[in-house]
């Protein structure tokens, strides 16, 4: 006699980077310490990293970062947090009762561990882990997956785990960003369009290179199996797909990388240098995309929307427009649903 078919119980584990609990200096310092002590984020020997973070960065950078977070904070709190909670709820509605969606942050609250506790007692025998970083990098997706596997691996009954490690080229991801950008393209003819991605140190690209493939040059202009997990190559591929979706002309846009920290070489070209050159070249209006962020945060709202605007104006520019992140865009929620269902 055949046993009755018991439907599996599937959990969806959304993971984003994280945010301080408040924009006050002690909470920002706590966040920076946890974030930057991650070996995948600052990949130098432990003692050197500890001294750098605890003796230099956390004491001196925290007050400045707290000032920046106060510009970002709203009555609802951090945009990264309240948009994350909203997307979790929207995805839950889209998937229905056959799934349970939770949200955890790699750093600070709600932690990956606390989110996993919501699932452990419920008997979920399959967990789909979705790091909310479009392009794979060791310092973002790699770190989130490592922590999720560590936490889920402590369950007495280890669930079947599926990981969505990248979605930079998913048609609905591209469509969602294009939907948001298209409304600004309809308003006027922009002199130039920048696609700016979060930077990472060049050494991290080389460490992840298969067979010494990556030369940090024109090899990123073509995306394929040999550079499948090259972060820089994925960023260029995202740009190519967005350019096609938006119908942009060659020469009307550029790709660059922002948010570098320290004096070691990061992947190039640098966004701030790009902006200076465009201003000096007589460009007066720029539309600014940040397609490595799925929710607005310091890097989009403050760095991309305010600091780069001032930099552009200082070098002769006039009109600057930030294209907001996906946040709660319905097509973005549909993209998440499609990815989850494909792993179910």
TrEMBL record:
<feature type="binding site">
    <location>
        <position position="198"/>
    </location>
    <ligand>
        <name>Fe(2+)</name>
    </ligand>
</feature>
<protein>
    <recommendedName>
        <fullName>Ferrochelatase</fullName>
        <ecNumber>4.98.1.1</ecNumber>
    </recommendedName>
</protein>
<dbReference type="GO" id="GO:0004325">
    <property type="term" value="F:ferrochelatase activity"/>
</dbReference>
<feature type="binding site">
    <location>
        <position position="299"/>
    </location>
    <ligand>
        <name>Fe(2+)</name>
    </ligand>
</feature>
<keyword id="KW-0456">Lyase</keyword>
<dbReference type="GO" id="GO:0046872">
    <property type="term" value="F:metal ion binding"/>
</dbReference>
<keyword id="KW-0963">Cytoplasm</keyword>
<keyword id="KW-0350">Heme biosynthesis</keyword>
<dbReference type="InterPro" id="IPR033659">
    <property type="entry name" value="Ferrochelatase_N"/>
</dbReference>
<dbReference type="InterPro" id="IPR033644">
    <property type="entry name" value="Ferrochelatase_C"/>
</dbReference>
<dbReference type="Pfam" id="PF00762">
    <property type="entry name" value="Ferrochelatase"/>
</dbReference>
<keyword id="KW-0408">Iron</keyword>
<dbReference type="InterPro" id="IPR001015">
    <property type="entry name" value="Ferrochelatase"/>
</dbReference>
<keyword id="KW-0627">Porphyrin biosynthesis</keyword>
<comment type="similarity">
    <text>Belongs to the ferrochelatase family.</text>
</comment>
<comment type="function">
    <text>Catalyzes the ferrous insertion into protoporphyrin IX.</text>
</comment>
<comment type="pathway">
    <text>Porphyrin-containing compound metabolism; protoheme biosynthesis; protoheme from protoporphyrin-IX: step 1/1.</text>
</comment>
<keyword id="KW-0479">Metal-binding</keyword>
<dbReference type="GO" id="GO:0006783">
    <property type="term" value="P:heme biosynthetic process"/>
</dbReference>
<dbReference type="GO" id="GO:0005737">
    <property type="term" value="C:cytoplasm"/>
</dbReference>
């Amino acid at each position: 006699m055949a046993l009755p078919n018991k439907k599996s119980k599937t959990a969806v584990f959304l993971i984003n980077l994280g945010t301080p609990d408040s924009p006050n200096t002690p909470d920002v310092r706590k966040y920076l310490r946890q974030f930057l002590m991650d070996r995948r984020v600052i990949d130098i020997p432990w003692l050197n990293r500890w001294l750098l973070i605890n003796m230099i960065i956390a004491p001196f950078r925290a007050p400045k970062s707290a000032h920046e977070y106060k510009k970002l904070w709203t009555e609802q709190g951090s945009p990264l947090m309240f948009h994350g909670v909203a997307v979790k709820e929207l995805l839950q509605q889209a998937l229905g009762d056959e799934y349970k969606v939770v949200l955890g942050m790699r750093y600070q609250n709600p932690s990956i561990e606390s989110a996993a506790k919501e699932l452990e007692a419920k008997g979920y025998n399959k967990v789909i882990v979705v790091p909310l970083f479009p392009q794979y990098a060791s310092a973002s997706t790699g770190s989130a997956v490592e922590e999720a596997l560590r936490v889920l691996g402590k369950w007495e009954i280890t669930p079947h785990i599926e990981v969505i490690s990248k979605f930079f080229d998913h048609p609905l991801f591209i469509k969602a960003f294009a939907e948001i950008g298209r409304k600004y393209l309809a308003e006027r003819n922009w002199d130039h369009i920048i696609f700016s991605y979060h930077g990472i140190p060049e050494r991290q690209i080389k460490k992840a290179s298969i067979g010494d493939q990556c030369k940090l040059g024109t090899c990123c202009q073509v995306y394929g199996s040999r550079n499948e997990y090259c972060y820089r190559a994925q960023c260029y591929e995202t740009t190519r797909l967005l350019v096609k979706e938006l119908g942009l002309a060659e020469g009307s846009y550029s790709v660059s990388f922002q948010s570098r920290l320290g004096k070691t070489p990061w992947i190039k070209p640098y966004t701030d240098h790009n902006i200076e050159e465009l201003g000096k070249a007589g460009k007066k209006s720029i539309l600014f995309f940040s397609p490595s962020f799925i929710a607005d945060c310091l890097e989009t709202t403050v760095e991309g929307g305010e600091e780069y605007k001032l930099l552009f104006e200082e070098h002769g520019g006039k009109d600057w427009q930030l294209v907001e992140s996906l946040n709660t865009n319905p097509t973005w929620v549909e993209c998440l649903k499609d990815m989850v269902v494909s792993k179910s």
